[in-house]
Design brief:
The protein is of the alpha+beta class. It has helices spanning 3-14, 17-29, 38-49, 62-65, 75-80, 136-155, 177-186, 234-255, 259-264, 307-324, 326-330, 352-365, 380-386, 410-428; strands at residues 55-58, 87-92, 101-106, 125-127, 130-132, 164-169, 192-195, 204-208, 210-219, 223-224, 274-282, 288-289, 292-301, 334-342, 345-346, 371-373, 398-399, 407-409. It has a five-stranded mixed beta sheet with strand order 1-2-6-3-7, sandwiched between helices. Strands 4-5-18-17 form a four-stranded antiparallel beta sheet. The protein binds zinc ion.
Length: 432
């Protein structure tokens, strides 16, 4: 493709800046907290249908996915199933035998604590070149960039040689099997994919963390507090387990290091792996020795260890407490891995799709790409780990994901859409 045509694509997208901002706002308005993805998916499908695309809409089927090594029952699936939680995909057929590409994003967002926000999380505010709203950065901004990139190519009548699929999915925030995994199993298996998670263009994401949740049911024995000699305090026993897990966390942090994580965020150095006890529930009365406590936690870790190795580490730490405690050795805690169950992944940055995205991102932003990742779980792993489809994260800059006053930088949205459009042209090729 000539330099002129490349400039046309960039200009066309630049001229769509307001449209891009409006689309992000409209998507944020849908309050698509995991489990309530449908309204946002309807915005996406009607937008694609308006371009004459045939839109495939389907609800995931847990039973069809169950035997896949990447599948687990997400908490939102356990609570409400997959009814009314559609995925969306539409393919524009290539006119030649070019390589196929999928541009994909998740439409679900995490909940908000409105009291913490200085802006309305569901009715975005534009201020100083930023758009504030829940999901603006993670990752409705990226979703809108995909759509606008597609629309620009369509308006310029650019015929790609390979198939281009636009895809939006559910429940990434919950682990994603009903989203990207379901799309892959439905047959959407391109030669390469890009997910527009907020990588902070020109930076590109090439790794994700393993994430698993666990639950420990710690038994005690109830008694009146004044006759405490007859009871066993489960909170005290749980505290010992907590200390052992905390010690394990420190020991793991001292031996596990992953440079791409702190290239992306310098503050992560020394914290690439993390073990967090997030909830504790137990006891029912100040004057009763508690008979049971439930701890729930999460362990995250960078590429380098398998899920089996990490499970063994955590279970061994708990077992050590159990075996050395008189009560617990006779009444062992019940240990369960529940919910999130994702293996980490790492993508070779020499992959052509990564290098094409990098060249375009660097040209467009005038800055140098850093390859980062490996501190959070994400959908890219499904492509990279299980289907051998290279899939980097290429998305906008912003801040405060999962926090108050989340925002995306509007210039970066435009640059993301430009990078996507040009990378699609480079990867899929164009008609002679
Ligand atoms: Zn995300």
């Amino acid at each position: 493709m000539s330099t002129d045509n490349r400039e046309d694509i960039r200009d066309r997208i630049e001229n769509k800046r307001d449209d891009l901002v409006d689309l992000v706002s409209e998507l944020v308005n849908q309050r698509s907290v995991t489990g309530n993805e449908k309204p946002a998916q309807e915005v996406v499908s009607s937008r694609l249908e308006a371009r004459g695309l045939e839109v495939d809409t389907w609800e995931p089927d847990a039973d069809e996915l169950r035997d896949h090594p990447g599948f687990f029952e997400t908490s939102s699936y356990v609570e409400q199933g997959y009814d009314d939680r559609p995925n969306v995909a539409a393919t524009r057929d290539g006119v030649g035998d070019g390589r196929s590409l999928t541009l994909s994003g998740h439409v679900d967002v995490v909940p908000v604590d409105e009291d913490e926000w200085s802006y309305d999380p569901w009715d975005p505010t534009v201020e100083d070149g930023r758009l504030y709203g829940r999901g603006s950065n993670d990752m409705l901004g990226g979703v809108a960039s995909i759509i606008v990139a597609y629309e620009a190519l369509d308006e310029l009548d650019i015929e790609l040689a390979g198939d281009l699929t636009i895809q939006t999915t559910v429940e990434e925030e919950d682990g994603g099997p009903g989203g990207v995994l379901s799309a892959l199993e439905r047959g959407y298996q391109p030669d390469a994919a890009i997910i527009t998670e907020p990588s902070g263009l020109p930076n590109i994401g090439m790794a994700s963390a393993g994430v698993m949740y666990f639950r420990i049911d710690v038994p005690g024995k109830s008694a009146h507090a004044a006759r405490g000699y007859a009871g066993v305090n489960a909170i005290g026993k749980a505290a010992e387990i907590y200390r052992a897990l905390d010690e394990l966390d420190r020991e793991r942090k001292s031996r596990i290091s992953y440079e791409p994580a702190f290239r992306q965020n310098p503050r992560l150095e020394g914290h690439e792996t993390n073990l967090n006890v997030g909830t504790i529930e137990g006891g029912d009365w100040p004057s009763t020795v508690p008979s049971g406590v439930v701890l729930e936690g999460r362990i995250g870790w960078p590429p380098g260890e398998t899920r089996e190795e990490v499970r063994a580490d955590v279970e061994a730490a708990v077992r050590e407490v159990t075996e050395t405690d008189e009560w617990l050795s006779d009444h062992p805690p019940e240990f369960e891995w529940v919910g999130w169950n994702a293996a980490p992944h790492e993508l070779d940055t020499d992959e052509e799709i990564v290098q094409l995205a990098r060249e375009n991102a660097e040209t467009i932003t005038g800055e140098t790409t850093t390859f980062g990742g490996g501190s959070g779980g994400n959908d890219e792993r499904f492509y990279n780990r299980y289907y051998d489809i290279p899939c980097p994260s290429v998305g906008p800059r912003g801040e405060n994901i999962h926090a108050a006053d989340e925002y995306v930088e509007i210039d970066s949205l435009v640059e993301t859409a430009q990078t996507l459009a040009l990378t699609a042209v480079d990867w899929c090729g164009t008609a002679e």
